[in-house]
Write a sequence for this structure.
């Protein structure tokens, strides 16, 4: 697991200054990289398009021009569909802008946005890392990204398991959507990154697996949905410090858990709606806990949790790590004012196997954890259940709800 690099340290690190498409297109692309007509500090991507150019050739020319400038201009995308097959190397100051919003993709393979979509054909990532392994000052706004529906494409090149995470610093992603990728960012250290007003749909693997510090994940209209996960977390914070995760709506179908937090300090989870309940006759198949805390220090405030623990043995880390709606396996956690919608909506149909098992703890603390609970609610007229593996692990203001087991 990568150690977080605080942004104050990273500011002195070297970053890359150039970018090209990883696949050489042809010699005409360099000819297109001449000074375009600017719009403020931006340049239209379409100003680089020559007769007969593909979208890849147009993008390669625009990237080449912007990366070569001392002060990096924003590349402005038109309200249209761009179809790309190549992988592009990110550079310091990469800025992409379109006049779109982050509203949810429809769940089928078609696409109904009237804004800008960037579609990645084939396998391989849309963006990859520079040779230094780190970069800063990336900004992407108002673009809907879609991966190859048959699988094999990531938004950003993933970090292999066991390798040190590269650092992405001082960057902002807003009003963007990602659909049908294997992952969005799998194995990245965020240092001073903001992700806000976004949606993610139908990732084949964990959408975000990140460490780092000093970052903000602000949903607003933030929505994460999955249809084909196989027991892995949807949002995984491996070692995250001084970070706020707020106002996300997550429907973790097929996931091991909605959110997993392994280590770090001073991280806050606020106003999360985590809903894996049976709806419209479909199974509720969040296999394990909705929130899994494995270490560090964190605070969970407010929010509403509904439907989980259908098959803990099907999670990627096993049933012993999933004991309730919120499972604290280690570290120190305060849980304040969170509401639990016990079980599943029986009017929705489906078999009893699709529902959260009866008497599932709302909070469970394993040996070695330290938990404070205040003002928790069970909103289905079922008793609140707060369970500790051994006495003394949970400081609870509702002693009638506290059990040992």
């Amino acid at each position: 697991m990568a150690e977080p690099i605080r942004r104050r340290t990273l500011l002195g690190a070297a970053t890359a200054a150039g970018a090209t498409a990883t696949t050489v297109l042809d010699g005409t692309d360099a000819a297109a990289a001449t000074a375009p007509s600017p719009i403020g500090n931006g340049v239209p991507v379409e100003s680089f398009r020559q007769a007969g150019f593909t979208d890849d050739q147009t993008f390669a020319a625009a990237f080449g021009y912007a990366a070569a400038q001392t002060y990096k201009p924003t590349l402005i995308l038109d309200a249209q569909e761009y179809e790309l097959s190549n992988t592009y190397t990110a550079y310091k100051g990469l800025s992409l802008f379109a006049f779109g919003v982050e509203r949810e993709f429809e769940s089928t393979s078609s696409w109904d946005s009237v804004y800008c979509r960037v579609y990645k054909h084939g396998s391989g990532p849309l963006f990859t890392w520079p040779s230094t392994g780190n970069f800063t000052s990336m900004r992407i706004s108002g673009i809907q990204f879609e991966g190859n529906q048959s699988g094999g494409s990531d938004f950003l090149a993933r970090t292999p398991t066991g390798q040190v995470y590269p650092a992405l610093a001082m960057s902002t992603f807003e009003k963007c959507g990602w659909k049908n990728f294997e992952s969005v960012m799998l194995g990245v250290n965020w240092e001073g990154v903001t992700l806000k007003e976004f949606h993610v749909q139908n990732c084949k693997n964990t959408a975000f697996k990140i460490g780092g510090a000093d970052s903000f994940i602000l949903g607003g209209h933030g929505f994460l949905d999955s249809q084909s996960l196989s027991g892995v977390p949807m949002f995984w914070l491996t070692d995250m410090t001084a970070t706020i995760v707020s106002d996300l709506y997550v429907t973790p179908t097929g996931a091991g858990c909605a959110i997993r937090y392994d280590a770090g300090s001073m991280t806050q989870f606020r106003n999360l709606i985590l809903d894996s309940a049976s709806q419209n006759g479909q199974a509720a198949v969040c296999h394990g806990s909705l929130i899994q805390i494995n270490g560090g220090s964190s605070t969970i405030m407010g929010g509403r949790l509904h439907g989980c623990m259908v098959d803990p043995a099907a999670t990627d880390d096993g049933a012993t790590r999933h004991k309730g709606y919120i499972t604290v396996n280690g570290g120190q956690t305060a849980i304040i004012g969170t509401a639990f919608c016990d079980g599943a909506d029986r009017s929705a149909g489906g078999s009893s196997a699709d529902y959260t098992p009866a008497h599932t703890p709302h909070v469970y603390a394993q040996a070695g954890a330290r938990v404070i609970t205040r003002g928790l609610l069970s909103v289905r007229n079922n008793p609140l259940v707060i369970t500790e593996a051994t006495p003394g692990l949970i400081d609870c203001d509702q002693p009638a709800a506290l059990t040992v087991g």
About this structure: The chain is about 5% helix and 35% strand. Confidence is low (pLDDT under 50) at residues 1-22, 24-32, 345-351. The longest strand covers residues 216-226.
